[in-house]
Every structure is written in structure tokens, then in C-alpha cells.
Amino acid sequence: MDVIIPMLVDGLAASAVIFFIAVGLTLVFSVLRVLNVAHGSFYSIGAYVAVSIGGLAASAGLNPWLSFPILLLSAALTAAALGPFIERTFIRWTYGKPEAVQILVTFALFLIFEDLQKLVFGVQSYYEDSAMQVLGTSEIGGIIYLNYQLLLIALAVLLIVALRVMLSHTRLGKLIVAVVADPEISQTLGINASRVYSAAFTIGVFLAALGGALATPTSGVAPGLGADAIVLGFAVAAIGGLGQIEGAAIAAVIVGITRVLAIYYAPAFEPVMPYLVMLAVLLVRPYGLFGAAQARRI
């Protein structure tokens, strides 16, 4: 029990950050049917914006509790600035194109954003931990934990509930569900599918940026963060089944706990654990844990 509780808390905390990466990716795929490689860039940009604004607030001597709305504001600013513009300018014309075209376009965006981040923020690491410091620590099972880790777990659970409520009980959610079910019939019924696509893509950017912003108090931000995030996000989305929100949540928990188990018992395998899990799952269920084969229009 002395080992199980720390592993479980560490695993769930790691799962929360992974889930924020994967859920936006899987939402965009379920609506737009686009494998968005640039999703990792939105994660790192959200982190850079959060660190920049948080650093300015700390330098100005503002109340450290303001770091929490700053994390949320950073994600919202990133989504508002990039979501609609990127979708209308670069993503929209790839709808209905082969997956190879979509991947090439979004990969090109990813490379552009990576270089732009180096030009704007340089190649040094940044760290701003006011949100983590102000929450302090708690003792669970004789082990000291950061309360910020527990907050991440709670936020991940809250996000799952919020997404389900949004999809089931809001006008935007019902429009998204209708477009996902059949875009052509939805447009025939008067639904503006282009606006739904733009809104869904912007929500995906917001979730990626929010994940990056929430991760900065514990891990900071440095060049290469976006590449690490997108590779991990794809692995989790593939394990859960592309387009499956609950699948992404369960896959994130599996990956988070297996990574922690590797850290405890076989540290050399920690970097490859997500991909070993993905390989094992896809060998048994090629469409992921919650995915299913779908008819393809030729």
C-alpha cells in the first residue's frame, strides 16, 4: 500500500496532462476527420503564452492567485488568435482530401510554428510556478504531494463532464453531433457546417493550449515540447480510438500509470511505454479500445 498510493496519484496526475493533449486531438478528428499534427504546436504555444503572461504578472507583484485565471486566459487567447484563422486558411481546403495531404499540410504548419516559437521566445527554457507554489502541498499515505497535481486530476475529470454536457445539452454541441453523424444531411437541413468545423477546431486549439498552460507550473516550457506532445497525443488517441472522448480518458490513465510503473521498476523503459501499450492494444484491437471499423466512401 505504501507504494500503490504514490504510484496511483503520480499516474493519475500524469494522465491528466496527457488527457488534455489527446482530447482536443480526438475532438478535431471526430468532427473534421483531420489528423492534425500541428496540435502539438498549439500545446507549446499555450505554454509559452502562459509563462510569458504569468512572468509579467509576477514581475508586477500581482497576487499569485491571479496565476489561475492567467492560465485559462492564455489558452483562450491562443485559441482566439489561431483557431479560426488556421482552420479557414490552411485546414478547410483539406476536407475530403486523402489523409496524406492532411498530414503533410498540418506537419508543414507544425514546422512553421516550431521555428516561429524559436524566433519569438529563443531556445532557452522558461519556468513560472506561481500557481504551484500558492497551492502548497498535502500528505497522502505518508507521502508529500503537490496540491497542484491533485488539481490537475480534478480538472481532467471536470473537463470530461463539461465536454459531455456541451455535446448533449448545448446548441453548439447538438450541431457538432449532427455534423459528425452526416455532414451532407446537416447542411441540407440548414446547418452551417463550415461554422461548426471552425468552432470545433477552435475548441481543439483551446484544449491543446490549456493543456500546455496547465503543464507549465510543474514542467516549464522549452523547444521541442510540441513534438513530444503530439507524439504522445497520437499514441493516446490511437489507444482509445480516434474520435472517442471517453476512450482518450481511459487511454490517458493507462499510459500515465504504465509510465509511472516503468519509472518505479524499469526506468529505462519509461520513454517507450506509451508506444509499447499502443502496439499491444492495436495488435488486439486495430481501431483502439473504443474505436470501430467504419464504411469508407470511395
UniProtKB/TrEMBL annotation:
Segments passing through the bilayer: 12-35, 42-62, 68-91, 103-123, 143-167, 196-215, 272-293
InterPro entries in UniProt: ABC_transp_permease, BCAA_transport_permease
GO molecular function: transmembrane transporter activity
A biological process from GO: amino acid transport
Any Pfam family hit: BPD_transp_2
GO cellular component terms given for this protein: plasma membrane
Family the UniProt entry places it in: Belongs to the binding-protein-dependent transport system permease family. LivHM subfamily.
Protein name: Branched-chain amino acid transport system permease protein
Species this chain originates from: Amorphus orientalis
